[in-house]
Specification:
Elements lengths: L8 H40 L3 H13 L8 H14 L3 H14 L10 H31 L4 H6 L10 H10 L1 H7 L6 H11 L2 H18 L11 H17 L13 H8 L12 H19 L5 H10 L7 E6 L32 E6 L5 H22 L3 E8 L3 H8 L3 E9 L24 H14 L2 E8 L4 H10 L1
Helix pairs in contact: 1-2, 1-3, 1-4, 3-5, 4-11, 10-12, 11-12
């Protein structure tokens, strides 16, 4: 969980906000139970009091009981607004905690009905969420959009000046083609693939715990049924409902389930202590899984992306104003390690942390696209760079970042159409998405398999698990290849 939480900032923030929301709701539920108990105790004492003096003293004690109906309403509203603005999927994780917060401590002895108290809390929460969301929208539009204080003062802004990130997120994911470009997965991917990736041996324990809880609810006698208004029920529904909701979405990644990790661990971690002949096999398996997963996801899987970005930022580009960075079969590359100024220009001040202040990096993330599409994109970018140089006298370089084991099939594909020069490589780096194109070599130059060829082949294969950055220039392109490029573009 800790390694996954370092990969994508929005998911990490969603995990933090969900954990904070759960803590506040659980704390409020506990405080509400204590307050309701004290109120009932004082009420019973008041009814049993014989003299006026006793009733007055009891009434004074009643005033000492702290209120609980709207406890933490402001921080909870702010968390919900920030979480939704960060990722609209926060709705799945906030629904259960909010429902438990709205319905906690509802008593039939109150002067208001349970339905009225429930609605009062919702009515007071909405303005807090809307006000916080408005401030976030204003800040985002001032920083990223075309909105300026001058336009605000004179009320001359239009709809295009505002940047509504949640709306753009929702509209983008409603388009089937956009979701398909990131990958389409079966509806059971979260349950059968992503949960075991994140939890290991705790995943089946969690699933069995949920099934066992619902079986107890359905088949046990009424007095023996598990409680619904408990912290355990809060964590159970806070983990189960988001999995169901996110499984409806066709694109499913393990990082989307990060916010449910605290709930699952609180529910099921104690079951890892199960003993068998004085030995805790589940706990041993849990430690082994976490060590192996930390090494794999933290230092091997897609581990070269960040170092390659740092290396690119340190490369000397000779003052070239534009550099195309084409990424193939890697995770989405972070922009911050490139250390690029927001507005690169020749006359700007010298920045000590920036090696290329005059260069603007143009990032082209091709994901897991076929190598033929990578080839076509490179031809198009280099041709465009040559045209800009002829017309505007501005040079443009093109760099390709690709797993090393894909270089051989890529060389066979491009032939002489591109000239490729290796600048740097970093290992270890494994792109699971590209392992299907991995070609191990265990034979010598004569095609025979010997002990020595196997040893050198293994060393060569290990060297292929790295990430390379290459300088790409135009080679000899035939008219047939250019015609195919024009048809595909």
């Amino acid at each position: 969980m800790l390694v996954y939480s370092t990969r994508t900032f929005s998911n990490t923030l969603e995990l933090f906000l969900t954990s904070l929301l759960l803590y506040l709701v659980a704390h409020t539920m506990k405080r509400t139970d204590e307050t309701v108990y004290l109120q009932e105790l004082v009420q019973n004492s008041y009814k049993q009091a014989d003299t006026v003096r006793d009733k007055v003293n009891i009434q004074k004690k009643r005033k000492l009981i702290p209120p609980h109906d709207f406890k933490y309403i402001i921080p909870i509203g702010i968390i919900c607004a920030v979480g939704f603005f960060n990722r609209p999927t926060f709705v799945f994780f906030a629904f259960t905690p909010l429902f438990f917060w709205f319905q906690r401590g509802i008593s039939t002895n109150s002067m208001f009905t349970p339905f009225q108290i429930f609605n009062f809390r919702i009515a007071l929460m909405i303005p807090i969420i809307l006000l916080t969301g408005g401030l976030l929208l204003l800040t985002d539009s001032l920083y990223y959009g075309q909105l300026t204080p001058h336009k605000l003062w004179h009320l001359t802004m239009d709809w295009q000046d505002w940047k509504n990130a949640p709306f753009n997120f929702i509209m983008y994911n409603l388009v089937p083609g956009n979701v398909a470009s990131h990958g389409v997965h079966p509806h059971y991917t979260h349950l059968l693939v992503n949960l075991p990736i994140l939890l290991g041996p705790l995943a089946p324990i969690f699933v069995l715990t949920v099934i066992n809880w619902f079986c107890d609810i359905l088949y046990m006698q009424w007095k023996d049924k598990p409680g619904v208004r408990t912290i355990f029920s809060l964590t159970l529904f806070s983990a189960s409902l988001p999995i169901i909701g996110l499984s409806v979405v066709k694109h499913q990644e393990a990082r989307f389930l990060l916010p449910i990790m605290p709930c699952v661990i609180l529910m099921c971690a104690h079951k890892l202590r199960w003993k068998m002949n004085g030995w805790r096999p589940l706990l041993t398996l849990w430690y082994a899984f976490n060590i192996l997963a930390a090494v794999w996801f933290g230092f091997i899987h897609q581990a070269g992306v960040l170092p390659i970005q740092r290396q690119i930022s340190r490369l000397e580009h000779g003052g070239v104003p534009y550099v195309n960075l084409v990424y193939s079969h890697t995770y989405m590359p972070p922009r911050l390690p490139l250390m690029q100024p927001m507005h690169p220009h020749a006359g700007g001040p010298t920045l000590p942390y920036c090696s290329n202040p005059k260069t603007k990096y143009l990032v082209h993330d091709l994901g897991s696209s076929d190598l033929s599409l990578v080839h076509n994109r490179l031809l198009a970018l280099i041709s465009r760079g040559d045209y800009i140089y002829k017309t505007q006298k501005k040079a443009m370089h093109t760099l390709l970042v690709i797993p090393t084991h894909l270089l051989q099939p890529f060389h066979r594909l491009v032939k002489n159409s591109l000239h490729i020069h290796l600048l740097h490589s970093h290992g270890p780096h494994v792109s699971v998405e590209a392992l299907g194109r991995f070609e191990p070599v265990y034979w010598d130059g004569e095609g025979e398999v010997t002990t020595l060829s196997v040893v050198f082949g293994a060393i060569y294969s290990l060297q292929q698990f790295s990430l390379s950055v290459l300088n790409v220039t135009m080679g000899h392109v035939s008219t047939v290849e250019m015609g195919q490029l024009d048809n595909k573009s």
